[in-house]
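User: Hey, my collaborator sent me this sequence without any context and asked if I could get a structure. I don't really work with proteins. Can you help?
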Amino acid sequence: IAQRLVRRNCPFCAEPYHESESMLRSLGITPADLQGRTVMQGKGCEKCSGTGFRGRTGLFELLVVDENVQRMISERTPSSTVKNYATEKNGMRTLLEDGCRNVLAGTTTPEEVLRVCQREEI
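Assistant: No problem. I've predicted the 3D structure and written it out in structure-token form, which is a compact way to encode the shape of the chain:
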């Protein structure tokens, strides 16, 4: 299991924010993903001391080690191959994917997710 903490948008001052397409693309978010959703960002208020953030939330990634993953590990298969297998066959969600879900839910910002996650090949 892996986890990263990201700052949450302040619920008192968060407002819709137009993020650049290149930033959203770097997260893997397409215009189709934004259908009916709005990227949010705190503008800063007294309750968040002007930061736009209040509190933290976790991003999580869980690798379930089944027989195939165990075999790949013992054979010293490259981690990218193990990750590809886990995401495609076992439904694993990466930290970045979990971050995207939080951005689309308005919980945090794309910049915050990229600050704590490694960029993936998309």
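In plain terms: The longest helix spans residues 79-89. You can pass these tokens on to your collaborator as they are.
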